[in-house]
Structures are given as C-alpha cells and as structure tokens.
Amino acid sequence: MQAITSASTTKSSTSASPTATSRQFVGMASSSLSVVLLLVCLAAAASAQLSPTFYDASCPGALATIKSGVAAAVSSDPRMAASLLRLHFHDCFVQGCDASVLLAGNERNAFGNAGSLRGFDVIDKIKATVEQACKRTVSCADILAVAARDSVVAVGGPSWTVSLGRRDSDTASEALANRDLPAPSLGVTDLITRFAAKGLNHTDMVALSGAHTIGRAQCKNFRTRLYSEDNIDPAFATSRMATCPQLTGSGDSNLAPLDDTTPDMFDNAYFGNLKLNKGLLHSDQVLYTLAGGATEDIIDGFASNQDAFNNAFAAAMVKMGNISPLIFPQGLVRRTCSRAN
What we know:
The protein is an all-alpha fold. Helix content is 49%, strand content 2%. The protein has helices at residues 18-48, 62-76, 80-92, 120-133, 140-154, 174-180, 188-196, 202-209, 223-228, 234-241, 269-275, 282-289, 296-304, 306-321; strands at 216-218, 255-257. Helix 2 packs antiparallel against helix 4 and helix 11 (269-275) crosses helix 13.
C-alpha cells in the first residue's frame, strides 16, 4: 500500500513567524503520522483475520494435499523447490499475496518474470486435486503460500506456521511487477527501499535473499557481474564464464547455481559465499561488499549460525506472506489458478 499526499503553498509577501512555521510543520508531521498509523492498523487488521486453522472444517485435507503435491514435484525436479518459493515471493511483492502472478499473461510478462518463473503447472495440478475434494474453497494464494513453505522443508530448510484465509485477485499488472520486483542489478540502497516499501526491514531482506541458497539464475542476469565487476573471486568468475559468454544474446538462458556449494540444499552456505566474493548476482554480492555497513554484520551472523538464519528466514516469510492479503468480502476463490473465473 502507498500513501500519496500532495500539498501546495503560496508564497506570501510577508514572512511567516517562527511560531506559525513551527505549527505548520507540527501539523504536517501529525497528518503524515496519522496516515502511516492508519495503514499499519489496516494491515494488522487484515492479517489478524488470517488463521492457520482456516480450512480445518471446510477442507481438512487441503494442507496434506498441498504437501504431497510439492513433495512429488521436488522429488522429480529438485529445482522446483526454489521455483515455488520464488513464485510466492514474486506474488507477494506485486499487489500483495493474492495469486495474481499465477494468472496467464500480465505479471508473467514482466522483466523479472518472463522466461524465468516456473512451477505454474505444479500449482495448477495441486489446485485441481484440492478442487476435487473441496470446490471453490481453498484459494490459489493460500496454496502458493503453503507450497512455498513445504518446498523449503523438502530441501532441508525450516518450517513455519502459515496463516490462511487469503483470497485471490482477478487482475494482475505487468506495470506494477516491473516497478516493484527487485532486479538483480539493484544496489543496496534501492534494495532496502524496495523491501521497506513492503514492510520488511534489513534483517528480513538479508534473510529472504538467503533463499538464493537454492535455485539457479540465467546468464543474462549475471553476465555483467562476471565481466565488469571487481568484487568477484577470479576463479569463481572464470568457472561461470564457461557457460556464460560475454556476448549479449549468446547463452542468455544458460543456468548457473546461485549457491555453488550446495545448490539444492537449504542451508547458510550462500552467506559464506558472499564473504568470499562468490555471490552470483550483483544484488547478492552488494549486500556484503558494497553495503556500507548496512547488512554485513547480519550476513556474518547468518554465515556462522545456521539456526539464526533459519529463524530469521521463517520470521521474514511470515511477514512477507502477510503483505496486503485480500480478505473476504474482497477477492474471490479462483477455480483454476492460471485464469480468472
């Protein structure tokens, strides 16, 4: 959510007194504070209506069905754990956690999504199975939130309680996705701004970036780092250059693991890699070598303490999953996740 305010002032021929000016600033600050407090209260009210037991009576087998579907998908393709986790992230950062990213077209065509998002078929298959048992009951947004959690657990990561009751949007926006999704080329200041706009602090941002302990990235997203940046381990850069040629358009979709140490295991190796200048994406490495003190201590802590990372990641996922959910009577429950009813 955003609060947009505008104000106009008219220059007077007589200067305002210090007292009057002070009162004006106090009034403006009070007004701005009121807007912020209102938005916080609205978000808290929406989150308060979510409940981990939401489907206990209406669809008691839903969570087990989702877990089974995720387990089968990850067993068949270990990369799918990262793909489903990324789908949830890209959903919540655009319009909130409303399954808009699952709709065909629109958000899927955004710069950070086109040709790289995966797992739509897995979610559709799980949704179809759930629909057989409980028609028009379990939202795609909730399925995606639970699937992200179960994907992390499937590759050795932490679990967390997912509150449920989100509803689905029937619209999606490519423009909002292009505006709100963090790009792999962003610096620390821009990353902090993007995450803060969603109510996520520095620790949340670093913990969620740790999701890159699993998954792969396309050559086009790390080519510039390999050939133009100094804060990269030479041997690491050389190994990645073997499958990512310098010429744009050559090997753009070739994949490399985001965590070269344990690419399919959810652990804290990603943070150790950053300390060795072995972050694959620019947006990864800047968190440590170009952060100006903003996030280095957090990374040091996670690199030396797996439990600290697991706990922070789980807490950040809960916060992210509560970004602007649609709560009844808003939204709807889509019959098929890839299209509006």
